[in-house]
Amino acid sequence: xxxxxxxxxxxxxxxxxxxxxxxxxxxxxxxxxxxxxxxxxxxxxxxxxxxxxxxxxxxxxxxxxxxxxxxxxxxxxxxxxxxxxxxxxxxxxxxxxxxxxxxxxxxxxxxxxxxxxxxxxxxxxxxxxxxxxxxxxxxxxxxxxxxxxxxxxxxxxxxxxxxxxxxxxxxxxxxxxxxxxxxxxxxxxxxxxxxxxxxxxxx
Length: 203
Prior knowledge:
This is Glyoxalase. This protein is α/β, with parallel strands linked by helices.
């Protein structure tokens, strides 16, 4: 089964970005590289921290804001749970969410998974593209949303329509088309139908 090992984000200031992701506690999974050409607008993806309860959402959001992030969607309760969306100083969009609506313990800043949610033009076609490269479907909702299994990785891959993803993040869907992310995995490198770049981390 194909797994994601690391995510490398293009950033304008590597020192500041490293400090931010260290403070957020995701530096073991997220690396940074200096951007040759800054991209503008929506990059076509979001990153989510999935946590176990609401007070942990609050703790992560507070840490992100304290490290320089800005609010895109304030934390609130919804039908599906509790969460909010922030934008890192480097421009990457982070969502912190839980399906739980009650706290059952202290607010320890721990996350269960990082979800890389790619905004794609054709969910069904992209789903097949990734299945052909060894990804196993865990959840699928027709042409709207697909989540792939990742039993051996803290990073999960999911697909959503690009415009729907931008709306969920609270930003306009317009962008230059530069994604500003490289996905490291245990398969040979490739570029997917929406221009996302994958590189092999195999030694």
